[in-house]
Amino acid sequence: MTSKRPIMTSDLPSIKEILNENNAFLVKPDDLEKLTERIKNVLKNPIFLLKSQIKLLMMF
Prior knowledge:
The chain is mainly alpha-helical. It is 50% helix and 10% strand. The chain has helices at 13-16, 32-44, 46-58, and strands spanning 8-10, 25-27. It has a two-stranded parallel ribbon. α1 links the parallel β1 and β2. α2 (32-44) packs across α3. It is flat, with a radius of gyration of 11 Å.
């Protein structure tokens, strides 16, 4: 988060104790298609990543 890199992780209860939709990209386990889509969105559209960083900054 502080390294300004996108976090993509499985949407699991244990992960959600620390991360959420405001500071990470959560993907259902074993959903390779959705994971691929999220990675492509970040790589093709830096604004997509910037919006997630703005959400994180607004939390503080």
